[in-house]
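Hello forum,

I keep getting stuck at the same step: I have a sequence, I want structure tokens, and every attempt I make locally crashes halfway through. Rather than fight my setup again tonight, could one of you with a working pipeline run this one for me? It's a single chain of 350 residues.
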Amino acid sequence: MIKVLIADDSALMRKMLRKILEADPEIEVIAAARDGNDVVEKAREYLPDVVTMDVNMPGQDGITALQYIVDEKICPVVMVSSLTQEGAVTTFEALELGAFDFIAKPGGTVSSNLESVAGELLSKVKLAANLKDNSRIAERLSRSQKKPGTRLKTYSGGGKATKAVAMGISTGGPKVIYEVLPLLPPDINAAFFLVQHMPANFTSTYVNRLNAACQLEVVEAQAGMKVEKGVLYVGGGGRHLNLVQTTTGDVMIRLGSKPDHLFMPSVSVMMESVLKVYGERTIGVIMTGMGTDGADAMVNIRKAGGITIAESEESAIVNGMPGETVKRGGAEIVVPIWNIAREVIKAVSR
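Reply #2:
Ran it on my machine without issues. Output:
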């Protein structure tokens, strides 16, 4: 049984979270806490496998409580956040401080339709519990829990890109992406496209934090943008990131809601669109995440003569997406995440 401790200042939310979690026969809710002090005390007493923690709580808030639990190495923490700008900022701070992942309440701080994210909640709790048993990955994450630093911009991009790097990442991504993107130089002769599965309201905050940490220019992809080298275009939540080439040879961003897909934006849709424009000059990169999004697209990139790079099981927090890519033959290069930036730079220079 996976032992879970719930922390939320709302009695209704505690009740709903308990109902969702205990509907799964593999999960037992061993206690509930109503504020930061309470959850730290109960985490020390009950030693749960996972804590689900509300970001905003009275007294000692969720961020402070998180730091105690992470520093004492009690267990992984899944943050439960509201879909607001403030909630997004605090959530990314939590991830940078060591939270495993987050769930966004679909209806705000007190959400009556929490059932709509029940599947995601159960999956992430189980993955977090598995992480507790994987001391190698857990230790690596604990070593990189400091907040990413702000870099002096030396942007020297602009102009058409010779190559395109299409990157996909999901569960565990908002934390470990900092082991890749800040290492990419600003004068690299490629345009970058990133799909990270997350709610639409979180994208702008995510982009701002990446831009502060990277040498590349990082922007949220907007319809009509001209694609330039040295720029990383991040797909916004709720819209597919596509490319189109004009008669003059310029490559432009196009956003859309088709095709129907489990994820929007989808890694697969983005990669296939990049491949259509750049062909064998496409470099595909797939990293930690649940499911199979991007796996078949990586196969197609490799078949077309492009270079494909997958994160290895050695470092993947969740080996779903990269594992499936390797299984289907879509990975030419398989390396741990701390070597991905180096392989991307080598691939662009080929």
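The longest helix spans residues 118-133. If your local run keeps crashing, start a new thread with the error log.
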